[in-house]
Amino acid sequence: MADIGKDIERPLGQTVRPRAASRGLSARTVATTLVVLAALGISGAIALREKPFRKPEQAAVSTPKVTAAAEPAAAAPTAEPAAPKAETPPKAAGPQIIHVQTQEGDGPANAAIVIHDPSTIGQNLKIAHIPDKALIEASDTGPLPVRAADGRRPFDVYARPWSGSRGARVAIVIGGLAVSQTGTQAAIAKLPAEVTLAFAPQGNSIGRWMQAARQSGHEVVMQVPLEPFDYPNVNPGRNTLTVAASPDDNLKSLRWALSRTTNYTGVMNYMGARFSADATAMGPFMAELGKRGLAYIDDGSSARSLAPDLALKDGVPFVAGDMAIDAVQDRGAILKKLDALEATARAKGSAVGIGSAFDLTVDTVAAWVLEAKKRGIEIVPISAVAIDPEKN
What we know:
This protein has 392 residues and is an alpha/beta fold.
């Protein structure tokens, strides 16, 4: 109970102050306590939060994104200089030139490096009938084949492409084209493109038939009449090269035959057992072929031919025939010869057969080639089996 007496004795207007102990918590204490608790709570929350809170993700930054459409085309990054790009030409059988744009500082503006690719020698079949002007020498009788200024030969440029495989290969040359118009047309139409065609210089419309043959994919060669034994009783025809003629006269006759058409890889003898056995006559003939970049195909009819040695001496690509396939005009006999060619090719790697554009020969060869392919024999152009002194 309160002490009433003491309150009466206290002066008027004075109140009694409560004791500090009974007053409770002050406002300052409460505020301080709340601040401390808040600080502890925040510290705990920070300690318990994951790392992304301490290091905000980049996505949280409010930065306007610039779209690609807003950038000008010229603003493409150019930190690294672009590597030179080669202009890849379409694959073709003819010689190609690869242009490589140089980097800045390599030379004058728009400078280019010109590279001749030797692996692309050989004419594109789509334009095979069109003569290469760099391989033509004009003459009074017509275009003469000649090496180009850059060294390319008709033998290389007009060669039909082939697989390059080392399997069994058979090359077949069918001669006498342009003598008979209907026979020539049938040979070009029926014979597979891999079969090589040889034109007789005494024929008609040789230029037109050459174009038809090349457009059909055939490689072609030109036949040249050479003196046989028992000449002139056995006569190969107009402008025959003979042992008795002077070298100049023989070269004149040779150039006449060569100018009858163009786009061929070489020449093949028509007869010529006596001429090919005479070094004095055969020497200038072979040297002329070497100068012009042509091959020589020996039909293999004469064992006395000096052609192999002279061809090597004058740098002339050389092919020797293994057998005549149609000396007997009988289908069974021709098939036996063709089968013998196949056996030779399997034994030696390659074989060469020579025939003429008789209807029976053409039909038999066309049918045999289809079957031989199924047996794994590759039919190749005559250039594919040539011994080339400039490469071997």
